[in-house]
Specification:
By secondary structure, the protein is α+β, with helices and mostly antiparallel strands. It has three helices and twelve strands. The strands form two sheets. Strands 1-2-5-4-3-12 form a six-stranded antiparallel β-barrel. Strands 6-7-8-11-10-9 form a six-stranded antiparallel barrel. α2 packs across α3.
């Protein structure tokens, strides 16, 4: 400590003299109205130091204010970011509800054209194997459903219930290989049987001489007592006639895209 004082004794002495001079000057200002030569000299000598001190003080004050502003701005940005995420999540929920309502309106409009009562249901699962084409819906025997009830969507026939549980049912899709539905070509009334082919339908037993074109709509014929008459099944995709065959070879694309199926209607009986 002593070595430090000896090393900077002249600097410390100068600072002490400067402070003493400033104090003396301040005292004289309070006691006198006129400024002496000595006071003017002190003022001239001390002005650069005072300006430097004031500048340093202003810089430190501005830096501190800027720091506080940055901290506040950062906190506000975090809050705004969180608020933005919450608003986006709410908007996505509203959009999802709007899309669901749009699908349901189409489905209800489709069912309104039927002379049958129908029960809405949600698709909650699907068979991911290559052996079967089925889906699971969230309604079962508690809702009055039984095996054999037909299931439809806004674009047409989905399939029929094959198994039921208290709160769920398994639906066999029309594209399953074990599915066969009595059908007809809407334009020409040509009859046949729509059988599942995994992703498409084949129309069997359509006579060779019948006029069938690509794009014709295939609908249920109402025979068999399962599906009401006139429900869309698919659109004719290809037509082939063998030279000596009795029937045409026809394939059709289902009107429903089962990959995006979310809501369905189960036809439970005729309206009374």
């Amino acid at each position: 400590m002593r070595e430090l004082l000896e090393r900077y004794r002249f600097l410390l002495l100068a600072i002490a003299l400067l402070l003493a001079t400033v104090l003396l000057y301040s005292y004289n200002l309070r006691q006198k109205t006129a400024t002496t030569f000595f006071e003017r000299a002190v003022l001239t000598f001390a002005t650069p130091f005072q300006v430097g001190i004031d500048g340093t003080t202003d810089t430190i004050t501005a830096s501190w204010k800027n720091y506080l502003w940055l901290v506040d701005a950062r906190q506000r940005n975090i809050e705004l970011g969180q608020e933005n995420l919450e608003l986006r999540a709410q908007l996505q929920q509203v959009q999802e509800i709007a899309l669901q309502n749009k699908r349901l309106r189409k489905l209800l409009a489709f069912v309104d054209d039927l002379d049958h009562s129908a029960l809405p249901a949600q698709v909650i699962g699907e068979d991911g194997s290559n052996w079967a084409r089925t889906i699971i819906i969230d309604k079962g025997t508690r809702s009055g459903l039984h095996a054999g009830f037909p299931v439809v969507a806004a674009a047409g026939v989905v399939g029929r219930i094959i198994k039921t549980a208290p709160d769920s049912s398994r639906v066999l899709l029309i594209t399953d290989a074990s599915s066969a539905i009595a059908a007809l070509i809407q334009r020409t009334r040509t009859r046949g049987v729509a059988r599942g082919q995994g992703n498409n339908l084949s129309i069997e037993y359509a006579l060779r001489d019948a006029e069938i074109q690509v794009g014709d709509l295939l609908v249920t014929s109402g025979m068999g007592g399962v599906f009401p008459k006139g429900l869309p099944l698919g659109l004719v995709e290809s037509v082939t006639k063998d030279q000596f065959g009795l029937f045409q070879q026809i394939t059709a694309t289902p009107t429903n895209d089962f990959s995006y199926l979310e809501e369905v209607m189960v036809i439970v009986g005729e309206d009374r």
